[in-house]
Specification:
The chain is an alpha/beta fold. It contains 7 helices and 9 strands. It has a 5-stranded parallel sheet, sandwiched between helices. The protein has a 4-stranded mixed sheet with strand order 4-3-6-5, sandwiched between helices. The longest helix is centred in the C-terminal third of the chain and has 16 residues.
């Protein structure tokens, strides 16, 4: 694989990473393209196949694992697989763009390990676990059981923050967005 820049945003669900990534994608000078992950979970809300995720069956996902088609993959929750296809990264690099990821903590760290010099790994830290729970409930996209599962996982994910290149504290969304723009701009320019 020929390489370009890889920008990874990871965090517990509800931290604001997706909002920050969408903001960054709207800044043309950063030359970013979103890496669409594969998942075996069902679409939520208005999610679109090929734009938000590639929604595939568990069987198809396991075939990709066996064929070693993934840069990284993870069974995030029981029978909920997520992964980044090598072909997706190659597609974006062929466009001459930098790849931006909105992925789980384990996947983000795997990409950093596989491409240490090309990757900026950013952890988005929420104000508190209570705030995470409030944000997840406000979304109204999942059951209380799923929310509780995500909160339990958040405690483990928060402990991995020091393994990332940098941490953005999302206590105020506008400040977090500005911090992210500056950080990505510096990384792309080779100053980070």
């Amino acid at each position: 694989m020929s390489t370009g820049k890889l920008i990874v945003f990871s965090a517990p669900s509800g931290s604001g990473k997706t909002t920050i990534v969408r903001h960054l994608l709207g800044i043309p000078e950063l030359n970013l393209e979103f890496s669409v992950s594969c998942t075996t979970r069902a679409p939520r809300g208005e999610e679109v196949h090929g734009k938000d995720y590639y929604f595939i069956s568990i069987e198809a996902f396991k075939k990709h694992i066996k064929a070693e088609d993934f840069v990284e993959w993870e069974e995030v929750y029981r029978d909920n697989f997520y992964g980044t296809l090598k072909s997706e990264v190659e597609r974006i690099w062929a466009l001459g763009k930098n790849v931006i990821f909105d992925i789980d903590v384990a996947g983000g760290l795997r990409i950093k390990k596989k491409f240490p010099n090309e990757t900026l790994a950013v952890f988005v830290k929420p104000p508190s676990v209570d705030e995470l729970k409030r944000r997840l409930k406000e979304r109204s996209t999942e059951s209380d059981d799923k929310i509780n599962m995500r909160i339990a996982k958040a405690h483990v994910e928060l402990a991995t923050a020091p393994q990332f290149d940098t941490i953005i504290k999302n206590y105020d969304l506008e400040t977090a967005k500005q911090d992210a723009v500056e950080l990505v701009r510096e990384f792309i320019a080779g100053r980070v």
